[in-house]
Amino acid sequence: MSNTSKIIYTKTDEAPALATYSFLPIVEAFIKPSNVEIETRDISLASRILAVFPEYLTPEQKVLDALSELGELAKKPEANIIKLPNISASVPQLKAAIKELQSLGYAIPNYPENPETPEEKKVQETYNKIKGSAVNPVLREGNSDRRAPKAVKNYAKKNPHSMGAWSKDSKTHVSTMDHGDFRTNEKSVTVSKAGTINIEFVDKNGSIRILKENLALLEGEIIDATVMSKKALISFLEAQIKDAKAQNVLFSLHMKATMMKVSDPIIFGYAVETFFKNVFEKHGAILNKIGVNVKNGFGDLLNKIQNLPEDQRTAIEADINSCFEKGPGVAMVNSDKGITNLHVPSDVIIDASMPAMIRSSGQMWNTEGELQDTKAVIPDSSYASIYQATIDFCKENGAFDPTTMGTVPNVGLMAQKAEEYGSHDKTFEIKGDGIVRVIDTAGTILMEHPVENGDIWRMCQVKDAPIQDWIKLAVKRARATDTPAVFWLDRNRAHDAQIIEKVNKYLPNHDTSGLDIQIMAPFEATLFTLKRLKDGLDTISVTGNVLRDFLTDLFPILEVGTSAKMLSIVPLMNGGGLFETGAGGSAPKHVQQFNEEGHLRWDSLGEFLALAVSLEHLGEVNSNSKALILGETLDDATDKFLENKKSPSRKVGEIDTRGSHFYLAKYWAEELAAQNKDMDLKNLFTKVAKELEANESSINQELLNAQGAPVNIGGYYEPNEALTIKAMRPSETFNKIIASISK
Ligand SMILES: NC(=O)C1=CN([C@@H]2O[C@H](COP(=O)(O)OP(=O)(O)OC[C@H]3O[C@@H](n4cnc5c(N)ncnc54)[C@H](OP(=O)(O)O)[C@@H]3O)[C@@H](O)[C@H]2O)C=CC1
Ligand SMILES: O=C(O)CCC(=O)C(=O)O
Ligand SMILES: [Mg+2]
C-alpha cells in the first residue's frame, strides 16, 4: 500500500476523546476494504505533557511528541489529518492534569507558579508551551473554510432548536473601552523586504532591555503592535462594575484566556482585583505571601486561603462577601456550586459564551440559577461591536428564526499563526515606565509606544502568502456557492488598513466577474449580514483569525443550535488536508454527566462530516475509488442520520453518543449496500447491513442498559484505557458485528 493512503485521527481530551473510543473501531472496520489505513496520534493534554518531560519518565512511560510530528506532516502534501477538539489548558487545568499524572506514577515536575531557580524557569517555560491554544496553531498550516452543510441547515429548518425570545426592553449590552485599549493604540506596517527585528523596552533613564531578539520577517509581512493601558483598563472596569450595579444587570466578563494565553489572563486578573478591590487592598500582603495569582482567577484565591489560620481566612471571607453584597450580581458558570464568571479564566470563553447568551434572550445565570439581563464586558474594542450590533438587532427584530434564516459561512485567515492568535511570544506585561519599540537591524524604528508599569504590549504578524491564499479561498467559495462575500475589515484600524491594501492588490489576480465582493468594517458588516440572514439570505464572512473564531460559533449557534455541526476544512497550503471536527470545543460538562449518569451527549456529527471530506480528499488525491465511495456513502448516511433524528439526547435513558454511532454505522452499511459502483463493497456491506438491522433492538437495549449509573473510567485527563473501552463499547452484539467486517 502506498504510504499516502493514510488518515491520521487525533486522540484528544474529554468528551471528544470518549466518543473516539466508540466511533473509531467502526471507522477502522468500514474503511479497511478500501486500503486506507487510519492511525491515531495522541495530542491530549496529558500526552503533550508527558512528551515534553522525557527526562522525568521511565523508559516505559515515555511517549512520542505526536504534536510536533503532526506539525511537520501538516506542511507536506500527503497530510490527511482529522483533528478533534482538544483542551486549550488554562493554568488551573494544567495543574489538575499534572496532579492526575503524578498520582498515576509519572514523576513530572509541578508547575512553578513563581519560578526562581534556573531549573524552575526552564520547567515553567516548557509548561508554557503546552498552555493555552498550543495545538491548533501548530496544525493550521492553511486557512479556514467553515460552513453548515446543506443537510444540517435543512434539518435545523425542519427541527428548529429552542431560541430564547428577545424583548425590546432588554437591558443586556456590551461594554468596551473607548481609549487606551488594543484597538485604539494599534500601529501597523507592511515590511518591504525580509529582515530581522528586535523588540526593546527603553526605560525612563534610557537603558534598554531586549524583550525579543532577532525575529525574522518575510517580505510583504504585515506586523502590528499595540498596548493595553493598565490604568485605562482598571478605570474602565471600575466604571462597569458600578454601572452594572446601577442598572441591576449581571456583571460578566468575556475573554479568550485560552487562545490569548498571555494577554487575556492578565486582563482577567485585573478584573478579579478590581471586583474584589477591598479584599486586595486590605489583605494584599497575606495574599501575596501565600502566592495568590489572580491570572488564574478568583478560584485561585479561594483555594489558597483554605490553608490560612482560621481567623485570617474568615476575615478575608467576610470582605469577599461584602464585595459580593455591595457589588453587582456576577454571572454564574454553575449557580448550584457557586462558581462565578470570575472563578476560572477558561470557564467563560468568548466565542461560545456570547452566542450562548444571545441565544438565551441575552441573559446569563444569576446566583439563584435564574436568567437575568447582563452587562457583557469585553475590554478591548477591536471586535466587541459585532456583539453589540447583534444584540441591537435582536432587540429590534426579536430572536432569529432557525426555520427561515439564511446562513453565514466563514473564510478565515489563520495559516502560519496569523494575527493575534500567534502573538504570545511577542506579548509582554511591562515592568516599569518607558517606551516599547520595534527596531530593525539598520536601527530604524518601525513602531513604538509609550508604556507604563503593568501595561500589556503585544505585536502580531501575518505573512503575505497566507493572505494571498485566503483571498483565493474567498473567491473560490463565493464562486462555488454564488454567494456575496464580505471582507470584515475596518479601514480606520491600522492593521486592517494594511490588509485592505493587500486585498485590493491581490483580488484582481482572480476572476471575480459576476461576484459580489465587498469590504466593510465589522460593525457595518454585522448589520449587513444580520439583515440578510433574517431575510433568509446567505453571506460569506471573510475575516481575520479572531473574527473567524467568533463568527464560527456565533452564526452556527444561532442557525443550527451548536457549532458541533459545522463542516470545518483547512485546505493546507502545501496541498494536504486538515479536517477539523465541528467548530466548538470539548464540552467539559459532558464528561461530568457521563461520570455521574453513564450518559454521554457528545454529538459526533462534526466527526462524521470531517471523515467524509477526508475520505473524499484521499480518494481524489490517490485515485482511490473505494475511498471516494466510502466518503459519498458516509455523507448520505449522515443525511439519513439527521432525518431520522439519531443525534444523542441530553437525557439519561435515551439515545446517547454510543447509540448515535450505532445508527451511523447502520445507515453507512445500508448506503454501501445500496450503491452499485463497487461490488466488493456492496456484497460485504449488504451482509453487515442485514445483521445490524436484525439486531437493532438488542443492540439498543445493550447500549441503554449501560446508562443510569455512575461510570468510573479511572481518570479525567488520562483515563484508563481498558475501563474506557469497556464503558464506550458496551454492546457485545454490536462489537461482534463490527469485528466480523474485517475478518
Ligand atoms: N478546536 C478546538 O480544539 C477547540 C477547543 N476548545 C476547548 O474546549 C473546551 C471548552 O470550551 P468552550 O468554549 O466551553 O466550548 P464548547 O464548544 O466545548 O462548549 C460550548 C457548548 O457547545 C455545545 N457543544 C459543543 N460541541 C458539542 C458537541 N459535539 N456535542 C454537543 N454539544 C456540543 C454545548 O452546548 P449546549 O449545551 O448549548 O448544547 C457546549 O456546552 C476548552 O478547553 C477550550 O479550550 C474550544 C473551542 C475549539
Ligand atoms: O484552539 C483553541 O483554543 C480554540 C480554537 C477555536 O475556538 C476555534 O478555532 O474556533
Ligand atoms: Mg472557536
Automatic annotation (TrEMBL):
D-threo-isocitrate binds at R146, R548. Its cofactor is Mg(2+); Mn(2+). Binds 1 Mg(2+) or Mn(2+) ion per subunit. Mg(2+) binds at D351, D549, D553. InterPro entries: Isocitrate_DH_NADP_mono. Substrate binds at S133, A134, V135, N136, P137, V138, L139, R140. The record marks K256, Y421 as: Critical for catalysis. GO terms for biological process: glyoxylate cycle; tricarboxylic acid cycle. The keyword Transferase does not apply. It is an enzyme of class 1 (oxidoreductase). Gene3D superfamilies: Isopropylmalate Dehydrogenase (3.40.718.10). The keyword rRNA-binding does not apply. Keywords: Glyoxylate bypass, Magnesium, Metal-binding, NADP, Oxidoreductase, Tricarboxylic acid cycle. Pfam families: IDH. One of its GO terms (molecular function) is isocitrate dehydrogenase (NADP+) activity. NADP(+) binds at K83, L84, P85, N86, I87, S88, N136, G585, S586, H590, R601, W602, D603, R650. It catalyses: D-threo-isocitrate + NADP(+) = 2-oxoglutarate + CO2 + NADPH. Its EC number is 1.1.1.42. It comes from the Bacteria. Belongs to the monomeric-type IDH family. This is Isocitrate dehydrogenase [NADP]. The lineage of its organism: Bacteria, Pseudomonadati, Bacteroidota, Flavobacteriia, Flavobacteriales.
